[in-house]
Amino acid sequence: MTRHALEQVTDFGDFTRGKELKDFLKQSYSNNSRKNCLSNVRVSPDGRHIHVILHAPNTPKSDLMTYDKYLRPQLVQCKKHFDLVLTRDVPIVDLIYFDQSNTDDGVTLLGIIFENGKAEFWKFSERKSGWHLLQTVDLCNSPRAKINSVCISQHFIIWCEERPSNSSSVHNVACGNFRFCICKRSFDINEGGVCLGGVKTAMHNNPRYLVISSGDIVYLLPDIKEESFISISKVFLTWSPQHEIFKILSASNGTLLIKNSTANKESDFRHLVTDCIGILSIITPPDVYSFCPTGCGDLLLLLSSGWVCIMQRDGVLRQIYKLPDNCLTNSGVQNSLNIYHDILALAVGRMMYLIDVKCGLELDRITLKKEGLLFVNCLDSHSPQMLSEAGLFVVIQTEAEAKPKASVVHSETIHSSAVLVEAVFEEACKYYQQRSLSTTKLTAEKLRTGGMFQAPISLAAIISDYLTNQTIKIAGKDASGHGKLLISLDSELKSLIVLEDIKTSMVKASENDLGSYCETLVQQEICRLLSSEMDKENLQYLNSIFHLFSTEAWQAIQAVLQLRCNGAGSLSTKAPSELWKIVLSPIQTMATFTQQKHTPANAVLPVFELLCKSMFKFQPSWLPRFLELAQQQSGTSSNSSWNYGVKESSESLPLYKRVLAIVPCIDAYQDLEVELLLCSQRPNAIMQALRILIGLGEWGRVTQVAERFCRQSPLLNKEIFTTLLCEVSQHRDLDPYLDLLWALCPEDMTVTAILNIVLKNMPSTAQSSGPFQGHTNDSQPTIGVLKPLLSKVLQRETRPRQRYADILQSPSLPPPAPPRQVKDLAMVNTELDIDQKESPPSGSQVNHM
């Protein structure tokens, strides 16, 4: 099995003034500003230069410290080298690195951008002993301009600058937050330095933006911490400097608007967002916690919802991975992300997640000793690189061998055989204990010494033969009894050997490898337990595993059940149905738990409750989706769940009640409770969720639930409508939703029934003055409120019934005429008449009816 680990590349010992850098990072971590200790650190694309921007507090001064790694260290010893150490009275905005892939080795071109619009270009060369200043230029045209952020995109330098207004009019004061503009200048690199083109303004009157380059696309992210217009922070822009195309995007909807400014040459931000001002008032996208360009036109986003997404260059937002819900709760946690070919690395606090970008599968987790900053090294762009106070690290792949080699097995034959013999005695002891009528507990020691059972000795000989002749296998018809026994025991013996090998490896493992071995061991044990009969002993053992190794058990459950969360938030599984039968097995003891507020902490939980409790701890947002998935696997039909009045036994306890039983203090998680009740698709649960929402006063969600479930069952429709009509009778909070509520009125509801419900639930203060008389209390319903409903129901009642229309309608053709009858025919009353009628005389004619 492939595992990942961090390998230290350097401890800064091969960098100039490396000890000073290490001390600075260590001191920054110890200060209160720990969250931003790495925000001012820059690493060059080749990983050979580390720059630290220092801003002096309460002063405009800033320092730049540079630490370099020479490819030929002897040059540093033989010649005097020049470090790039600056102290300026103007703040440094950022650094830009120019692509020098076509030049000779050891050459780096760096641009230092200052807030006042100045730019210094420096060149590093080992042959010339370090850093040398090439030139100083004015990047901006206006001497009063202030640069806020800067980046480099292909052959353009792009920045966001502030242009103070010359007028103090009311209009300019109101638009003070839109005093920035986006500018660009083309450049060419020659032997003398950097040759700049003219300044071109791409957009006017925009808010403060951070410009981020990703390939040929530039992203404009609002600087939210100084932005007073909340609606503007909901969106960000992309801009193609070559084609002058702007796109307005959001972190929830993707592309909102596309504008081509080629004809106008310059764009105005306020005119640009006018076309989508309506959607800005209704969207509520999550906040952007962190971001990183991919270099190919896409942008990685870490959102406050816990999702890691990619905003693609075509404007499509693709969700990749959902972090556990408790990862981003601490605002002081350092987070960093980057992409390396098909692997996404995400460091949150002291945990690094490795995710497959193509499918969103979590490949591995690495525990970090120190928080770090992820960066891409152009010389090894496929491997995640990280900087921390301890040095530079790279992620490598290691093979965690779960199966020992043959030579190892032969060298440890005595140890393995002893373990296997012990396992045989323990299994035999359990078997004979079940068959024994005695109350005395049978132990393995009694089997050994008492001569009660000789089979373990024979099996021990078989095991010894198995260990010494693993390469010899006899199969088919020619196999002897001894060979057949070996074949039947082969898989069990291998499992025992592998398990013992993992235990031995854990004892000898280092601290870094201990976590991976522990996770492997827990996963194997959980998989073994779920594949066997879940008796009381196994269930207690499974509970102890979840209690002692909660994190490893959660990871193991995701792997064993093969749980996957797609972008829409739904769960899928590829686990076999036999495994789900064990997970969802009904347990009678859970009936007592549901009568209490929550499950006791020391209770032995069934498998399903164990999984739900673990999920509630690490990923509570998955619980409703997991309940839906469990109901599908259990074969619970949505049609059969609409039956009322069915008394539920402990063995047929609904899954949603079993989930709710493990949630501690359910009153503190009412949103989760409502979701679980609705996902159950049961009428009683839906009505319970509806009453919770009514108690919380969330009328918008109340009407959504009513509209959704009224269409699925006539009985539930009537109960929901009656409940909401009672609420209408008591207050006016549902007035904005009355049109929707009246549309949900059942077909069999009459005017009399509606009036009875309203009068019965009318507040007591209104009954003294009559139900529909004027009153000063605005919370009472009036006849005007109920008039549309009563009119609709009255029209339906007076409408002619169509039930017997087919009977009352006359046919298109008249029915056939009945046979004609003779009116003067004498009625036969005597036997003689009957005889005469049956035998008429000759020559006479009698007409019969």
Nutshell version of this structure?
One of its GO terms (cellular component) is lysosomal membrane. The protein is of the alpha+beta class and 849 residues long. Helices cover 35% and strands 23% of the residues.
Q: Cα distance, first to last residue?
A: 100 Å
Helix share bin: 25-40%
The helix-and-strand class reads alpha+beta
Q: Main beta sheet, described?
A: 6 strands, mixed
Discrete helix count:
28
Q: Low-confidence stretches at least 5 residues in length (pLDDT < 50)? A: 168-174, 401-414, 474-478, 588-597, 637-650, 772-776, 824-849
Number of β-strand runs: 33
What is the typical, i.e. mean, pLDDT? 77
Rounded to the nearest angstrom, the radius of gyration is: 40 Å
Beta-strand content estimate: 15-25%
Q: Characterize the overall form.
A: flat
If you had to describe this structure to a student in words, what would you say it looks like?
Residues 839-849 have a biased composition (Polar residues). This is HPS6 biogenesis of lysosomal organelles complex 2 subunit 3. Residues 804-849 are annotated as: Disordered. Residues 3-395 form the BLOC-2 complex member HPS6 N-terminal domain. The chain is an alpha+beta fold and 849 residues long. Among the domains are: 147-280, no CATH class; 286-397, Lipocalin (Beta Barrel), CATH 2.40.128; 406-508, no CATH class; 533-634 and 653-681, no CATH class. It has 28 helices and 33 strands. The strands form 8 sheets. Strands 10, 11, 12, 13, 14 and 20 form a 6-stranded mixed beta sheet that branches. The termini are far apart. 28% of the residues are buried. The model is unreliable at 168-174, 401-414, 474-478, 588-597, 637-650, 772-776 and 824-849 (pLDDT under 50).
